[in-house]
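From: lab user (bench 3)
To: helpdesk
Subject: output format question, protein + S-adenosyl-L-homocysteine

Hello, I'm new to running complex predictions and I'm not sure whether the block I got back is the full result or only part of it. Here's what I submitted:
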Amino acid sequence: MEHIRIETLEEFAKANSVPIMQKEGIDFLTNYIKENNIKNILEIGTAIGYSAIKMASVCDDIKVTTIEKDKSRFDLAVENIDKFNLSDRINVIYSDALTVDLTDTFDLIFIDAAKSQYIKFFEKFDKNLKINGVVVSDNLSFHGLVEDDSKTNNRNTKQLVKKIRKYIDFLKENKNYKTIFYKLGDGIALSTKIIVTSQSKCNKQSQ
Ligand code: SAH
Ligand code: MG
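Helpdesk reply: Thanks, we reran it on our side. This is the complete output you should expect:
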């Protein structure tokens, strides 16, 4: 087996402008996986396999399914995952996530693909998340532009920022999930799937 270090992937990503997760964010995510005994993970947006490799490396019995729509990135991811000897635990699917149909259920879904499509990803894969499972969303700060978009005049960027704000509102209003926002890395949300029982829908105060 060819040996490779995780730093090599970080350097490659930097040199080739591949937007892999920032250190603070990936540390938070892998820590969450460890602390909460997460075993089955779905990732939307593989890029070159960096975050999938980091997540699968937390524990030997973790399985990751990850989807990437860009062929050259998919090829690199498969190659990298093989170099880390993780091909039996990381399944990379070459497809647009919006056209894949998965029947498995997961403990954690990590959304890290096209920022304009987050609501669609969330709604599509809701059925694949276990009760008490968690959706982790990355880049909700988008280089600080979500909090303050005066730093850009680019129309497409402004449009994207609007969509991310819409997604944040969508998470806040979603009654089936409890979301906590973290100002870590490029902004992360953790949304836990809860059961809304008829009892908890009632606002009447108990006597
Ligand atoms: N999670 C990776 C980084 C992902 S970058 C890491 O931290 O290491 C986002 C990736 O999502 C890009 O490679 C892009 O090609 C992919 N992507 C964007 N939209 C997608 C879609 N609809 N389906 C699948 N992949 C998508
Ligand atoms: Mg990201």
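A quick orientation on your result: Residues 6-206 form a domain with the Rossmann fold fold (CATH 3.40.50.150). Let us know if anything else is unclear.
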